[in-house]
UniProtKB/TrEMBL annotation, chains A, B:
InterPro entries: CheY-like_superfamily (IPR011006), EvgA-like (IPR051015), NreC/VraR/RcsB-like_REC (IPR058245), Sig_transdc_resp-reg_C-effctor (IPR016032), Sig_transdc_resp-reg_receiver (IPR001789), Tscrpt_reg_LuxR_C (IPR000792), WH-like_DNA-bd_sf (IPR036388). PROSITE patterns: HTH_LUXR_2 (PS50043), RESPONSE_REGULATORY (PS50110). This is Response regulator transcription factor. Residues 139-204 form the HTH luxR-type domain. The modification 4-aspartylphosphate is found at residue 56. CDD domains: LuxR_C_like, REC_NarL-like.
Length: 207, 207
DNA sequence: GCTAATATGAGTAAGACTACCTATTTTTTT
DNA sequence: AAAAAAATAGGTAGTCTTACTCATATTAGC
């Protein structure tokens, strides 16, 4: 097997170093060139033909998908793997649409990345398994089932308002707000003292 | 100079590998033991005395501050450096309150970590982006005026426990916990419905 | 040893939230 | 137009939290 030129890009220098180690340990026939920015990586790709590119998704200025799209224009046959913190399905799907061959979650174990590289080299696609959905994620899914008014109430709660204050804000009765609270709690499967308040504070960023 | 036992903890295996490389490259007299979870790290610390501990802040279950607090109980003279994505002031302040010696942002360049280690070994404190830290937020300052038991109660509240549950945990009367809550609220100048709960959740990372 | 701080526990009252109900009006969907 | 969903509001009971007061035993500091 010939030597393969491998392009490695991550803006976190320490992570990048770990990445080089992990990959070189496993694939002795790789000639790895690592870069801490997509711009430097792309510059290098202008003068050196790469067979495989492995890039972080979230980087300043140019993101991983843009970089890989550019690289594909230069070398249409280049194989590509994206590394990311995101486990969202739509980003993954978007990655595949953009001609990415592999998609690996950053906090997965080393084995996962190795398998991904092997599969991609064989010509297959590889996508990290979706994380098991936990309780919290389920609840966030349920957020979509809330009505406009319920979301308004939840927003009020997350803004440290009492039911009485929210009632005054919305010009309705305290009892109406209490009913909304109950309905929200039922939809989100929340039980017990102040569980709704806790949820609202912890998910303030979503509201 | 004697060999130094260094404990390294990060739940991202690839980053952890990079970390080992970077540190070993620079400090040849370090005997580095790396772990992917605070629990494993702490178990190891029970049978081996470490001189320096470098840990990620955000990890599942036990966080970096808790780990380092526990390690300090075992080895009061241990030097400690926290790695984190967060540049928030309150977390940094909390780190300092908890006796952490160094605080380095994960995406900083390698040199920064090396400098941090060198400074901490000299007995100095090292904090990334010093200028961010300034004394504001009186409430968080007032945290220092809380007694041990009051902090325990506050921790319980931030862990979503009711007064009744905390009372059971600590084998005291519900009334005692209610009194502690009142004393805490007075010290932190908190007033109104569930203000203590809101404070506890919002400052969970400090407790 | 004396004093202050801490931890413990109780009494009482009020306010807030939860957890069920039922019911009417308004809006949206089919 | 009929049916479904959403918003409104009230009842009742129970739990939890806040906000005071007071009291006592233990611990820590001077």
């Amino acid at each position: 097997m010939d030597k393969l030129n491998v392009l490695l890009v991550d803006d976190h220098p320490i992570f990048l170093k770990g990445l080089v180690e992990v990959i070189q340990d496993e694939f002795h026939d790789f000639v790895i060139h690592s870069f801490s920015s997509p711009e430097l990586a792309f510059d290098s790709a202008k003068s050196l033909k790469y067979n495989l590119a492995i890039s972080d998704l979230d980087m300043p200025k140019m993101n991983g998908i843009s970089l890989i799209t550019e690289l594909k224009i230069l070398y249409p046959e280049i194989l590509t793997i994206l590394l990311t913190m995101h486990k969202e399905q739509d980003i993954m799907r978007s990655a595949l649409v953009n001609g990415i061959d592999g998609y690996v979650l950053k906090d997965d174990v080393v084995d996962e990345l190795v398998i991904a590289i092997e599969e991609v080299l064989k010509g297959n696609k590889y996508i990290s398994e979706l994380e098991v959905i936990n309780e919290q994620d389920e609840q966030i899914e349920e957020l979509k089932s809330l009505t406009k008014t319920e979301l308004l109430v939840l927003k009020g709660i997350s803004d440290n308002k009492t039911s009485k204050e929210i009632a005054n804000d919305l010009f309705v009765s305290l009892k109406t707000i209490e009913n909304h609270r109950n309905n929200i709690s039922r939809k989100l499967r929340l039980k017990g003292s102040n569980s709704l308040l806790k949820f609202a504070i912890n998910n303030k960023n979503l509201l």
